[in-house]
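Extended Data, panel c. Modelled sequence:
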Amino acid sequence: MKGIVLGLLLALLVAGCIVKRLNSRHLTGTCDGACAHYIACKPGHPEADRARCVQECPQVFSDRDSIMGYESLACADAVEYVDGSAKKTAGTPAVVQ
């Protein structure tokens, strides 16, 4: 009985690792991977934005770990990181008194 319980626990542990591996993003730690993530998340997947991303990426990220951190962001956060939020990028009209 003890062997069966241990076997089931081991099977659940292995299955949990496999499911986690299948559900997680592949982190490359490269600018190509970071830009692919950005473009996949960006509505319309514009090619001009990919070119800009590839050009700017080496200037923004200093190492593999920082790129992997970016690649792990949720889509909304990844796009906001590159493009800024609407509140931060929208021009504020001058107030005339």
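The chain has six helices and no strands. This feature is highlighted in the accompanying rendering.
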